[in-house]
Design goal:
Elements (H helix, E strand, L loop, with lengths): L2 E3 L2 E3 L5 E6 L10 E6 L6 E6 L6 E2 L8 E6 L4 E6 L8 E11 L2 E4 L7 E5 L2
Parallel strand pairs: 2-11
Antiparallel strand pairs: 1-3, 3-8, 4-5, 4-9, 5-6, 7-8, 9-10, 9-11
Length: about 120
């Protein structure tokens, strides 16, 4: 189970960086995705980093604004979120996944997410 952190309240146009950590687990061996779920909406995959080659994928809704990265030394996966919009408000989770062309498919256990609220 992976642990997401770093959420909070941010104004529109601002930035946040989320972190995903785990113990006894090497991120280098797995593909990791960030998902989000807002009240009343379906869960949406917002980024994925491939464990084999480090390639990344994003949906159009966040492309150019969000960046997923992996720090092997810290065994942490990050999600840098820039130019935040109120529509980005959601609970964000990280989970082991398959990075498919149509979007990530979660393969691991869902842990506790972190709340991101974008509001003025």
């Amino acid at each position: 189970q992976l642990q997401a952190s770093g959420g909070g309240l941010e104004q529109p146009g601002g930035s946040l960086r989320l972190s995903c950590t785990a113990s006894g687990f090497s991120f280098d061996d797995y593909s990791i995705a960030w998902f989000r779920q807002a009240p009343g909406k379906e869960r949406e995959g917002v980024s994925c980093i491939n464990g084999n080659d480090g390639s990344t994928t994003y949906p159009d809704s966040v492309k150019g604004r969000f960046t997923i990265s992996r720090d092997s030394a810290k065994n942490t996966v990050f999600l840098q979120m820039n130019s935040l919009e109120p529509e980005d408000t959601a609970v964000y989770h990280c989970v082991t996944s398959d990075c498919l062309r149509v979007g990530p498919r979660a393969t691991g256990t869902w842990g506790q997410g972190t709340q991101v609220t974008v509001s003025s």
